[in-house]
Amino acid sequence: MPELPEVETVRRGLQPALEGARIVGVEARRPDLRFPFPERFSERLTGKTIAALGRRAKYLTMHVDNGPVLICHLGMSGSFRIETANESATPGAFHYERSKNTAHDHVVFDIVSPAGVRSRVIFNDPRRFGFMLFSEGEPDLHPMLAGLGVEPTGNALDGALLASLLKGRKSPLKAALLDQRLIAGLGNIYVSEALWRAGLSPLREAGTLARAGKKAKEQSESLAEAIRSVVADAIAAGGSSLRDYMQTDGSLGYFQHSFAVYDREGEACSKPGCRGHIERIVQSGRSTFHCRTCQA
Which of 14, 50, 126, 280 is the most buried (most CB within 10 A)? Predict the structure, then answer.
């Protein structure tokens, strides 16, 4: 499933086409995706101007003038395709190409830019695990978003905040970092990468980073910095290039070439001075990649 950097690259790819554009038509080609479409879905969006395209964790938010906020999730296989008279592009940055089978084109937005250029933004989702819902008020208060934790971008997530979130937790550190109620938008890949950067084992008890003392404070600060930096690096590189996604210009993202541990089982650890190797273990049914030599 796409993580925060992938969704952010999709948002950035859609933003130039959508913000300021007027929706002149919406076609929902089936009654539902993961959930049924909202009542009067097309009617309530048609004729509206898109004021802003935002993101909260792994969710996209489309804010329209005098209308509901559209909350969209890509699910496992969802993607947007922008079509104009001369070209077609799929915003996003992932490793394997997204579906181009038009049989899976489930929602079509007809839009007109402020300059009068007409185009179509098409949501394609072979597995139909994505969804589109309305928020009648602030999207952060919608049940899908209300319980989400802090964003791992900017400076909000620091060592002190991270320690407070992990205090008293006996679960493995990786499991705690995947809890969307604590930190929103992180997934399997970036947690593995951040833990390697910070030199912390995914198996250690999460609450150990909240203990009193200099060492725990340094570890929580190191991990907070590692989380922020790995997410920022992935966004700058265009996402992790996971299954089915590509960037706006059709090229694949390249952050996967910078993975230090993810999907590198058996390879030598690349941390200077470490003679260990990357191992794969399973935690809660999901693969974890780490180096037991330099991650304690």
Answer: 50
CA 126 – CA 1 distance, rounded (Å) = 14
pLDDT digits (tens, 9 = 90+) for 180-211: 999 999 999 999 999 999 999 999 999 999 99
Residue 83 annotated among the catalytic residues of the structure:
no
Give the pLDDT band (50/70/90) at residue 99. Answer: low
Same domain flag for 16 and 107: yes
First CA to last CA distance, the chain: 28
Please indicate, yes or no, whether residues 125 and 49 belong to a single structural domain of this protein: yes
Question: CATH no. for residue 203?
Answer: 1.10.8.50
Task: Look at residue 23 and give its three-state secondary structure.
Answer: strand
Per the annotation, the verdict on 2 as an active-site residue is yes
Q: What are the DSSP E strand ranges found in 22-149?
A: 22-28, 50-56, 59-64, 69-73, 79-83, 88-89, 105-112, 118-124, 131-135
**Do 168 and 228 reside in the same domain of the chain?**
yes
pLDDT (tens digit per residue) in 45-62: 999 999 999 999 999 999
Task: Please tell me the pTM assigned to this model.
Answer: 0.87
| Residues 137, 28 share a domain | yes
- In the structure encoding, which two tokens stand for residue 175, read together? 């499991």
Catalytic residue, chosen from 48, 58, 81, 197, is 58
Considering the candidates 204, 280, 286, 292, report the single residue annotated as catalytic. Answer: 286
How many of the other CB atoms lie within 10 Å of CB of 12? 19
Contacts of 141 (CB under 8 A, 6+ apart): 135
- Its domain, for residue 240, covers 159-290
266 pLDDT higher than 60: yes
Same domain, 71 and 131: yes
Q: Which residue among 89, 111, 141 closes a domain?
A: 141
Q: How many domains does the chain have?
A: 2
